[in-house]
Design brief:
Chain lengths: 337, 200, 680, 116
């Protein structure tokens, strides 16, 4: 069992309830022991920075201070499932270190609430990072009892986890492979989705709907063109925008997309054989019923794998071999084990 | 030494602008972390990478040139920071490691302070969001959405009905806000933080 | 208390007559340090330490400044000189020569760096002035313990080793060989020629690269004064200027060079096709037994052991069967050669920046994104497409092409320097694409850097041809269309910074002008040869402006891109310059070594041998018969490690003796300064 | 002079002459101009810090910094940081009020017998 301090973030209890439910459901099988920060507060999302700097960082740092107190008798690893929450915690920790003046001011503010936080004393991770690099794909694979065979899943990470990536944890800033590897481990048919780290629009549906709808259209249309059954994400905001605003976007452009989007933890739970109800299925506005149909209700008949084709003689000019990335190689080894 | 040179050797006809040669520094010093703003080489990687650049009056690069030129009013009036979606594409690609979204946050705060915001939709949304957080310690979507949409997008409310009803019926929105236990502590921290911010 | 001890050791018991010269260096020093005050202070407060004169002057290194020192030596009988100015790296030689001209042993002159170590790093004028005084005080105390030294001379072996057979190394080799001296040219690949042999045309004249290079290669191959060692690498370098001993591994070619006629039948018959990642930049194929290109020098093939079917399975031997002179030798072993040379030139070249690292440009993922080196091969009539510019499918001619500058250069995420050649190379590509395909060509640049002769004129020419220039560093190359017109194209997304708007430009082909990087193993090479390299990995020259071909290690010179990115004319010029420096050294016949050496006072040596294992240059030998240690002054490089380690204090280091350093520390701490006189 | 030339006596001499801290700089490990002598300096510095502790002094008064000629900025910040640290330790007062511990009469000792 690996112990982590959990910072759920506001949306896990409301808009992204499916994320929270499915996270709870998969934690036990993969040995993830989560202890919630007691009395945590909102991280301020991307909104507070634009109002006032020091209060914005003090707001985040209260959570860090509370977590550090909790960390005193155990793990110093904090895990956040929400991308914005993860980035804000990581950013506050990073900038308090990079700019000692900010660190001092934030601590002065915290002192008003009898708290303090020494930057660098916690290790802040996003949930996906923990599952891939701490728990390991081998552990995930052991739990797969109902592979997501034949389900075409587009991996969508959104922006704030692989970027700015203060600690250089991700295999790439534009096209990281971590989520693809996880989905492959679950047996899914992973769509080559080139927009996997493009922005979902964030708060733009509230600020400039036209901008937001255009960004959503790009994401959904490319997924649709590539025969995606379901998109999967690691961020509540991405899920809300693609799921919640898809109808309004369809109205705006006169399109008729039906592109469900689920949290990656829901797909993990499904592959682990957990009851879809426990995983928050049905909470999505664009129904992902098709995913269940594909694997549960009407399981596709086993087709024997096609015999390996003889490699054709190269036509045209050879392509450069992909750049050796030790991070990806290790992951690949884990998957094939 | 170099600062003195810059100021004395720059021919500026408008006396107001002499003061504003400090604008770039002011923005940098009000930004969290080390912004590297003075390092911009005007290559345009940021504006090229930006998913919402089309909506911006000025690309980030152009905005930084305006800061450098001391065009305080024009820079703070620009809608650019309010269009930034904080996707960090520009940050990881910037050849000079400039913390662009953080500079955008700073410009937002400066624009609000200077009362130079053109379209209040975005700042109002942020302020409403922050108000809720300051009251409850948590965000409160339905309160936020209803207040915000009534003010800025009253006509969109009809389009929003299916989504809103869906969210409510699936219990993805709470009708009442959640409040953290130690609100007193959070308020004390934020009060002190605001004082510190004002002192700067 | 300790003072007496020191004074009695080697200083001349108050006989020192020291002159102190403080330089303004224009405003470089005088802008921060109160130079006049420093000189006055030295004259007054260090008088009892032997300072008889202290002067300040605008530029001490000028001939007038030097004359000032020479005059004082002659007229005032100075026997020690302190020059407080820039770093000794720059002008130690200048002032030592000036002293020698006036009849003073040059090693009685000491420099104190009050520019690099004081004025350039401080802003507080008063504190900087105080620091300058302390440093001069340290210098004065130190120079009191200096003794006259005589440099040792060693003969120079007239043979020269050149490492790297690209254009820079070729030029150096020919210059020296033509002057009548022997050259060993070591090249790691099977043929000389380097990157230049891969290019199609050279900017700005559009000469055919091979046409101007191959005659030089042939000259090298047939020159009686050049021993050409290709498919070879230097493993070890010992010795010092004048007499280096170099160990070279001549890798087994598996081909007997005595017997091979270079007929090429083995390549023809070899059934194994391999992607050629070196010469064809991964865009073409070669056989498992191959010469990299038809004009290769020497023209003997090599067998690529890891890819050869015979070594893998024990069968095949097609090459051996068809080789008439029986030159294939499957069990040939590596040879270790020992070369004796007097000087060494390193011209090891560069590696191309690996464009796969910039994932946002899609190289390696999007088929029609090409690197600059791939393009050179595409343009080349002897290349994989016979000079046809086509897409990766091998047949389609592009209708529109985007050329991206500064790939991996001027970018703190990759290389922070400018790679110098990419602007001109990109302009050349624009011209060639026009000429070969008539396609629409876009160039995406941050700045056009077309300095040097006829370069900007070439830019004008390319403009005239209708190339579309977009000023902006490209953000990404994508294959995801947003509108109908983008379908099936590569979309270059960029801010056109002259308009201030984001543009998406669909093209058929993207060319990445990748930057130049130091060789992957450049740091290792630097270690082997005992020279230094920058943090990036480029070899460091002795002086960036005034000595750009020498290194800090006597007798080792650098040329071409190993020192930093440069184009062909600059590489040739530097290759020739390095050769000229070597020829100058050879003509001297002997070289004076810095007399900064360690030596053992035999009477004090207890024979403990602690020092024996410390010397990295094997300069220390132990005489079993006498039970004492001896240091070979020619091998000793003067690092001083043994001096510090000797428990008996039996080893002394000239130029850095314990007395000198101890005295300098006291001086720095201002322990010997005349106390402020009581008002009288 | 290579950092390998560093005789521990030099450091104690500086402290005894009134310095409050001593910074030793050299090329990065693996990049020694004299091949590997900076490793020897490293060993001696560890010894010196222990000796300093033996005197009842803070080992923080000696700092080793590896810096190449290309790292001007880092070097400057290391110097600044060291000055602050030594300032926090306070003045040493050796060599000033004749307050030199008998054990540190380095110049006298080194003349005849330098401890290894």
């Amino acid at each position: 069992m690996s112990d982590y301090i959990l910072y759920p973030g506001c949306s896990m209890e409301t808009g992204a309830r499916a994320y929270y439910d499915s996270l709870k459901a998969i934690s036990k099988p993969i040995g993830l022991n989560l202890k919630e920060i007691d009395d945590w507060n909102c991280c301020g999302a991307t909104e507070y920075f634009g109002i006032s700097k020091t209060p914005a960082y003090a707001l985040i740092a209260r959570n860090l201070a509370l977590a550090a107190e909790q960390a005193a008798n155990g793990t110093r690893k904090v895990v956040a499932p929400c991308s914005a929450c993860y980035l804000n915690l990581a950013k506050a920790d990073h900038y308090m270190r990079e700019q000692p003046k900010l660190g001092r001011q934030v601590n002065e503010a915290l002192a008003a609430g009898n708290l303090s936080y020494k930057p660098g004393s916690l290790d802040i991770h996003h949930l996906l990072d923990v599952i891939i690099y701490d728990i390991g794909l081998d552990v995930v694979e052991k739990n797969v009892v109902r592979p997501l065979k034949g389900v075409r899943v587009a991996p969508y990470l959104g922006c704030m986890v692989p970027r700015p990536d203060y600690d250089h944890r991700w295999s790439d800033h534009d096209l990281p492979v971590e989520l693809d590897m996880l989905l492959k481990t679950l047996g899914a048919d992973v769509v080559d989705y080139p927009l996997k780290t493009e922005c979902c629009g964030g708060h733009m549906p509230q600020i400039s709907p036209a901008t937001a709808f255009e960004m959503l259209r790009r994401l959904i249309s490319v997924a649709d063109e590539r025969d995606t059954d379901v998109m999967t994400t690691i961020c509540p905001m991405c899920q809300l925008n693609i799921d919640g605003y898809q109808g309004e976007m369809n109205g705006f452009f006169g399109t008729n997309y039906h592109m469900p989007i689920l949290f990656f933890t829901q797909l993990m739970g499904l592959a682990f054989g957990i009851d879809p109800k426990e995983l928050g299925f049905g909470l999505e506005l664009v129904s992902a019923r098709n995913v269940l149909d594909a694997i549960g209700v009407k399981a596709p008949p086993e087709t024997p794998p096609a015999p390996p084709r003889r490699p054709r003689k190269p036509e045209g000019l050879p392509m450069p071999t992909p750049l050796a990335n030790p991070q990806i190689e290790t992951l690949k080894k884990e998957v094939t084990k | 030494m170099t600062e003195a040179l810059t100021i004395s050797s720059t021919p500026v006809s408008d006396p107001k602008q002499i003061e504003d040669l400090t604008l770039l520094k002011e923005v940098a010093s009000r930004t969290a972390g080390v912004s590297n703003l003075e390092m911009c080489i005007q290559c345009g990687t940021c504006g090229g990478s930006c998913p919402s650049a089309v909506e911006m009056e000025d690309t980030p690069r152009r905005l930084f040139a305006m800061l450098r030129a001391g065009m305080r009013e024009e820079a703070l009036k620009s809608n650019t920071p309010w269009i930034c979606v904080s996707c960090y594409h520009c940050v990881v690609r910037c050849p000079q490691n400039i913390h662009i979204p953080d500079v955008m946050y700073t410009l937002k705060t400066m624009a609000v302070d200077a009362k130079l915001v053109q379209d209040s939709t975005a700042p109002d949304f942020s302020q409403t969001f922050v108000d809720m957080v300051e009251d409850y310690g948590r965000s409160f979507e339905i309160g936020l959405a209803s207040r915000h949409y009534l003010k800025h997008f009253p006509l969109r409310l009809t389009n929003m009905v299916p989504m809103g009803m869906g969210m409510l019926s699936k219990k993805r929105m709470n009708l009442t806000p959640t409040r953290i236990k130690n609100m007193k502590q959070l308020k004390a921290i934020l009060k002190r933080a605001k004082e510190l911010e004002a002192e700067q | 208390m300790t003072e007496n001890m020191i004074e009695n050791t080697s200083s001349n018991d108050g006989q020192e007559k020291i002159g102190v010269y403080v330089c303004h260096c224009g405003t470089n020093i005088a802008g921060v340090v109160d130079v006049v005050q420093v000189a006055e202070w030295a004259a007054k407060y260090l008088k009892h330490r032997g300072v008889v004169i202290a002067r300040e002057y605008k530029f001490m290194c000028s001939s007038l400044g030097q004359e000032l020192i020479e005059k004082d030596i002659k007229e005032l009988g100075l026997n020690r000189v302190i020059v407080a100015a820039c770093s000794p790296h720059l002008h130690e030689k200048t002032f030592r020569t000036a002293c020698a001209n006036a009849g003073l042993n040059p090693f009685l002159c000491e420099m104190v760096s009050i520019r690099e170590q004081v004025s350039w790093v401080h802003t507080d004028k008063a504190a900087a002035t105080a620091k300058a005084k302390a440093m001069i005080s340290g210098g004065v105390e130190r120079v009191r313990h200096h003794v006259p030294l005589e440099p040792m001379t060693v003969p120079i072996n007239p043979a020269t080793l050149i490492v790297g057979g690209g254009i820079a190394g070729i030029q150096s080799a020919l210059e020296i060989a033509d002057a009548g001296f022997h050259v060993y040219l070591v090249e790691r690949e099977p043929s000389i020629g380097g990157h230049m042999a891969q290019f199609d045309k050279t900017f700005p004249t559009l000469d055919c690269s091979a046409c101007i290079l191959t005659p030089k290669m042939v000259d090298v191959g047939s020159h009686p004064n050049i021993t050409l060692l290709t498919w070879s690498e230097v493993e070890k370098v010992e010795g010092y200027v004048g007499s280096f001993t170099v160990t070279v591994r001549k890798k087994a070619r598996k081909v007997d060079e005595e017997l091979c006629t270079g007929c090429g039948i083995c390549q023809e018959k070899c059934p194994k096709k391999v992607i050629d990642n070196v010469f064809e930049a991964g865009l073409g194929y070669r056989k498992a037994v191959y010469t990299p290109f038809p004009q290769a020098v020497p023209n003997f093939p090599v067998i690529d052991v890891p890819n050869c079917t015979y070594y893998e399975k024990g069968t095949c031997k097609a090459c051996e069967i068809f080789c008439a002179p029986k030159a294939i030798v499957f069990d040939q072993q590596d040879q270790i050669l020992t070369l004796k040379v007097g000087n060494i030139i390193l011209a090891t070249g560069y590696d191309l920046f690996d464009a796969r690292r910039m994932t946002n440009y899609g190289y390696g993922r999007l088929p029609n994104v090409f690197t600059s080196l791939e393009m050179e091969r595409l343009f080349n009539a002897a290349g994989p497409t016979n000079g046809n510019v086509v897409l990766r499918d091998g047949k389609t001619t592009p209708q529109s092409v985007g050329i991206i500058h500064c790939v991996g250069s001027r970018d703190k995420n990759f290389n922070n320097y400018c790679s110098v050649i990419c602007c001109m190379q990109s302009l050349k590509f624009a011209h060639l694409v026009h000429e070969r395909t008539g396609a629409t060509v876009y160039n995406f640049y941050i700045d056009i850097r077309a300095a040097f002769k006829d370069y900007d004129e070439f830019y004008q020419r390319v403009l005239e041809e209708g190339t579309l220039f977009v000023r902006g560093k490209v953000a990404e190359v994508s294959d995801v269309p947003r509108v109908e017109s983008e379908k099936g194209k590569l979309i270059i997304q960029v801010e056109d910074t002259l308009i201030g708007k984001q543009r998406r430009i669909p093209v058929d082909m993207v060319i990445l002008s990748a930057g130049l990087e130091p060789r992957k193993d450049s740091k290792e090479t630097a270690r082997t040869f005992g020279i230094s390299c920058s943090a990036n990995g480029w070899f460091t020259e002795k002086h960036p402006k005034l000595d750009p071909v020498a290194t800090m290690t006597e007798g080792i010179y650098i040329a071409g891109c190993a020192q930093g990115p440069k184009d062909i004319p600059a590489s040739v010029a530097q290759g020739a310059a390095a050769a000229a420096r070597v020829l100058g050294k050879i003509e001297q016949k002997a070289v004076a070594l810095e007399p900064i050496r360690a030596s053992v006072v035999e009477e004090r040596c207890s024979g403990c041998r602690i020092c024996n294992g410390l010397c990295p240059f094997n300069a220390i030998t132990f005489h079993e018969d006498r039970m004492v240690t001896e240091i070979n002054p020619a091998l000793c490089q003067g690092c001083g490690t043994c001096v510090a380690a000797c428990p008996a204090g039996a080893i002394t280091g000239t130029g850095f003796s314990n007395d000198q350093i101890m005295a300098q520390i006291e001086g720095l701490m201002m322990l010997n300064v005349e106390p402020e006189p009581v008002a009288a | 002079m290579c950092s390998g030339r560093l005789d521990p006596t030099f450091v104690f001499k500086a402290l005894a002459s009134g310095a409050d801290g001593v910074m030793i700089t050299g090329c990065h490990p693996g990049e020694c101009h004299y091949i590997e002598q900076n490793y020897k300096a490293l060993r001696r510095i560890q010894l010196m810090r222990r000796t300093l502790q033996g005197f009842g002094l803070e080992p923080g008064r000696i700092r080793l910094v590896w810096a190449s000629a290309a790292e001007g900025n880092r070097f400057a910040s290391e110097v600044a940081a060291f000055v602050e640290e030594v300032r926090a330790l306070g003045p040493l007062h050796w060599g000033k009020n004749g307050n030199v511990p008998s054990i540190a009469a380095p110049a006298a000792i080194q003349k005849e017998e330098v401890p290894a």
